[in-house]
Amino acid sequence: MTEKVALTGAQETTLATLYGKAMESRRPDSILQDTEAFAALQRVDYDFSKLRVRRSDHLSLAVRPRAYDTWARQFIDAHPRCTVLHLGCGLDTRAFRVAPPPSVTWYDVDFPDVIALRRKLFASDYAMIAKSVTDPTLLDDVAGDTPVLVVAEGVTPYLPAEEGLALLRRITGHFPSGELLFDGYDKRGLWFLQRYGCVKASGARLGWSIGDPRDLERAVPGLRFDTELWYSDAPGMDQRLSGLTRRFLRGVYRIPALRRLGRPLRYTFGN
Questions:
Q1: In what side-by-side order are the strands of the sheet with 177-184?
Q2: How far apart are CA 149 and CA 86, in angstroms?
Q3: Where does the chain cross the membrane (predicted)?
């Protein structure tokens, strides 16, 4: 039985990422190996062709979640008793890929219609919160007595800057310590992303650009910049790109105008 899907705007882009991850995971040399994504794809009644996801997009849609999964496992290994907030989770199957131990409290967070669809597609034994990530009451029912890992893949560009900063301040004020993983696109990168196939097709509007990652340290008390990951060095890229191609990409990232078009960022706070 398939589920009819009627998402629009930014929420519709989650279907593009689901499709890209599922297709990449069918490859014998997949870097993501997301079998749950492919299984979910078979249960969705939707015309994916209108999102204009090209075959060449499949790797780019898999490399970022692979990086965040790697960071997530590192954090959980270091903090076996922690809270994970998977913000703007969409239809991502990170909880299945990371497979945290029972000592981890995991929350998937997204708009009510997205969470309703998740409940139909996935059998899960963790909590889901059906709210906008910028809702001021988001953390009201979330205990703040453990370190927290916040994963917000593909979320920040869709937020107004002030609402995004307010979200970060609420998180750092609610938990004693933790890490935050999210995307950073500078203004030029946001311009390109706005014209990217699935984003353009969905009609979603982008707003929050992040150029110098240390700017957020000044805007959010206690936040510390840790890592800016270039895709040439992302986990799994050595098995999909030749050494020559990766060296070329590293050269591209040395060009100031191109180095911060879009990349995963990692921040820490607390002790």
A1: 127-130, 105-110, 83-87, 148-152, 177-184, 263-270, 224-228
A2: 8
A3: none
103 pLDDT band, cuts 50/70/90, is very high
> Any idea which residue has 């496992």 for tokens?
73
> How far is residue 20's CA from residue 162's CA, in Å, rounded to a whole number?
31
> Which residue is listed with tokens 């953390």?
139
Please report the sign of the dihedral spanned by the C-alpha atoms of residue 36, residue 41, residue 42, residue 45: positive
pLDDT tens per residue across span 146-198: 999 999 999 999 999 999 999 999 999 999 999 999 999 999 988 988 887 77
Answer whether 199's CB lies under 8 Å from 154's CB. Answer: no
Cα Dmax for the chain: 50
- Strands 177-184 vs 148-152: parallel, antiparallel or unpaired: parallel
Q: What's the pTM?
A: 0.91
What does DSSP say about strands 148-152 and 263-270: parallel, antiparallel, or unpaired?
A: unpaired
- Are 156 and 210 in contact by the 8 Å Cβ rule? The answer is yes
Structure confidence by residue, pLDDT tens digits, 49-68: 887 887 777 887 889 999 99
Q: Which two tokens stand for residue 178?
A: 């933790």
3-270 sits in which CATH class?
A: alpha beta
- pLDDT surpasses 80 at 136: yes
Burial string for 206-231 (b: 16+ CB within 10 Å, else e) reads bebbbeebeebeeebeebeeeebbbb
